[in-house]
Design brief:
Radius of gyration of chain A: 13 Å
Structural class of chain A: mainly beta
Number of strands of chain B: 11
Distance between the termini of chain B: 40 Å
Shape of chain A: globular
Structural class of chain B: mainly beta
Number of helices of chain A: 0
Shape of chain B: globular
Distance between the termini of chain A: 36 Å
Largest sheet of chain A: 7 strands, mixed
Number of helices of chain B: 0
Oligomer: heterodimer
Radius of gyration of chain B: 14 Å
Helix content of chain A: under 10%
Largest sheet of chain B: 7 strands, mixed
Number of strands of chain A: 10
Chain lengths: ~110, ~120
């Protein structure tokens, strides 16, 4: 089973700053099957990125994804007030199972 | 409007059973792959199970043998039958639709319900 590790656990930034979130896999992940989600308190997760770098419908272009193999990155170019939330990466592997990372909380500095 | 609405959560004793429902609108459940994902209080997301359009099902090790995913095509509804419940199954349970782009599955979940809370406690 592939284990996903996200870092940092918490990222404290100010609006307008750039956020860089990391997702590392215990073994190689197909880039086609690496996704990122945003979750705000009391809400369901929202899909941001699929296929490592493709933005989901309606997602602003300040969100971008990159990476391959075992290292993936979600970048928020300029943080807006509504971007402060928890972000999860998720993968689908050859075992036909899905796994989520533990999450990175982006909070206001 | 594409929407998922879960129901069936509640308080159940350890060892008990519960069936969750997820009613879909705006798309056909049987034509998509559908999953259940849970989130324990204050914790992260945990994938639970998936059912594909062809009927294949898969489960996380933590629930295998205890939970069963199914669907009723006539009701356009997804289900999760949960047996032998344990305290560690306490969580908000979300149903989610698997995404497809240009007929290829993305293996990412593009539509989520609002969740239903399951509490396992005596």
């Amino acid at each position: 089973e592939i284990v996903l590790t996200q870092s940092p656990g918490t990222l404290s930034l100010s609006p307008g700053e750039r956020a860089t979130l990391s997702c590392r896999a215990s073994q190689s992940v197909s880039s086609s099957y690496l996704a990122w989600y945003q979750q705000k308190p009391g809400q369901a997760p929202r899909l941001l990125i699929y296929g490592a770098s493709s933005r989901a419908t309606g997602i602003p272009d300040r969100f971008s994804g990159s990476g391959s193999g075992t290292d993936f990155t979600l970048t928020i170019s300029r943080l807006e007030p509504e971007d402060f939330a928890v972000y999860y990466c998720q993968q689908y592997g050859s075992s036909r199972l899905f796994t989520f990372g533990p999450g990175t909380k982006v909070d206001i500095k | 409007e594409v929407q998922l609405v879960e129901s069936g959560g509640g308080l159940v004793q350890p060892g008990g059973s519960l069936r969750l429902s997820c009613a879909a609108s705006g798309f056909t459940v049987s034509s998509n792959y559908m999953s259940w994902v849970r989130q324990a209080p204050g914790k992260g997301l945990e994938w639970v199970s998936v059912i594909y359009s062809g009927g294949s099902t898969y489960y996380a090790d933590s629930v295998k043998g205890r939970f069963t995913i199914s669907r009723d095509n006539s009701k356009n509804t997804l289900y999760l039958q949960m047996n032998s419940l344990r305290a560690e199954d306490t969580a908000v349970y979300y149903c989610a639709r698997g995404g497809v782009v240009l007929r290829y599955p993305t293996k990412a979940f593009d539509i989520w319900g609002q969740g239903t809370m399951v509490t396992v406690s005596s």
